[in-house]
Amino acid sequence: MKEAKYYTHLDGKRLQCRLCPHNCIIKDGGRGICGVRKNSNSILYSEIYGEVTSIAMDPIEKKPLYHFYPSSSILSIGTKGCNLKCPYCQNWHISQDLTAGTTYYDPANIVHLARRKGSTGIAYTYSEPVIWLEYVLDTSILASKAGLKNVLVTNGFVNSEPLKELLNYTDAMNIDLKSFNDETYKKIQKGNLDSLLKTINTVNDSKCHLEITTLIVTGINDNINEMKEIINFISSMNKNIPWHISRYYPNYKYNKNATDIDFIFKIYDEAVKKLNYVYCGNIPPGRNGNNTLCPSCKTILIERRGYSTGIHSLKKGLCEKCGTETGIIN
Ligand code: SF4
Question: How far is the CA of 25 from the centre of ligand 1 (A)?
Fold first, then answer.
């Protein structure tokens, strides 16, 4: 166990964790909502420092990140636990099952492994990376020194102070924007919308590359007006931010039908009116919605089939045909 960052002593032996907006008050012997930060004798500990449930070299497109070193591979690691409680979680066997088995990796081991495998960097993913912040920071600092990139795939439910510390070492983030309805966030995912919007705005104002993902879940957020609100929100920040709209499949405690594919494309058609880069994820091959076109001359810059990625007309972020700056880091 490693002493946690971001907590305050209260009266008696109680502590308050200040890592995420739950701001859990934890009595001696108890844990916070994420299940992996424990008050032991008035010290808050991370129980998952270095405890890795999943590790793999993945195409960076799988995170998903489409505009950050496209076609590269990245060493991806995850732990167990989560500070949100989505009933349809696609990774529930590690995010919600705290009995999931782990293997310990020292930060230096992970960096060594990433270099040995020729990885672009390290992606903290699979479950929620914010809740093992101490490990992400230690590993990211070493990775940055070794010339590797750090990527966070996160639900964005984090307080401002730790977020700003993470941003010192994070090169790219994909943030889930699960809904644009505060009631849904509170009732279904057990978070809140304001915290998410604050995180996205902070990251957008930083140097970190930003992409956003929305899983369209049958019966929860498959509402075109709500999606239009997300489109307006993203386009008001920067219409070059890639937006991934992803199809849900029944999982964990939620068994409604997979998202109607036609509805995914209805959102896509609305989104491309205001955003330059919109992508449809988790859909069967043969449908479009995954290539990157130059926003000015419409030349195909990047072609994707599954996780096979071809870069055709892109050099140092510029369209080779018309010279438009695309915002893509390659
Ligand atoms: S990180 Fe965990 S313990 Fe800390 S406030 Fe969030 S849910 Fe609670």
Answer: 9
Query: The domain containing residue 220 runs over which residues?
Result: 51-290
Give residue ranges with CB within 6 A of ligand 1: 17, 19-20, 22-24, 32-34, 37, 83, 131
Q: Does 296 map to a domain?
A: no
Q: Is residue 301 part of a domain?
A: no
Of all protein residues, the one whose alpha carbon is nearest to atom 6 of ligand 1 is 20
Q: 131 and 183, same structural domain?
A: yes
Q: CB of 324 within 8 A of CB of 297?
A: yes
Using the mean position of ligand 1's atoms as its centre, give its distance from the Cα of residue 2 in Å.
Answer: 15
pLDDT digits (tens, 9 = 90+) for 162-206: 999 999 999 999 999 999 999 999 999 999 999 999 999 999 999
Which tokens belong to 25? 């008050």
| Residues in a beta bridge with 45 | 3, 38
Is the pTM here over 0.90, yes or no? yes
309: which strand partners?
A: 304
For residues 36 and 61, state if they share a domain.
no
pLDDT of residue 122: 98
**Do residues 155 and 238 both lie within one domain?**
yes
Residue 288, pLDDT > 90, answer: no
The verdict on residue 326 lying in a domain is no
Whether residue 286 is predicted with pLDDT greater than 80 in this model: the reply is no
Residues forming a β-bridge with 216: 247
Separation of CA 308 and ligand 1 centre (Å): 38
Q: What is the CATH number of the domain that holds 141?
A: 3.20.20.70
What the block records as the tokens of 254 is 């939620």
Answer whether residue 253 shows pLDDT above 90: yes
What SS3 class is residue 39?
strand
Q: Which residues pair with 305 in a beta bridge?
A: 308
Q: How far is the CA of 140 from the centre of ligand 1 (A)?
A: 21
CA–CA distance, 119 with 52 (Å, rounded to integer) = 18
Query: Both 157 and 73 in a single domain?
Result: yes
Classify residue 259 by its DSSP letter.
P
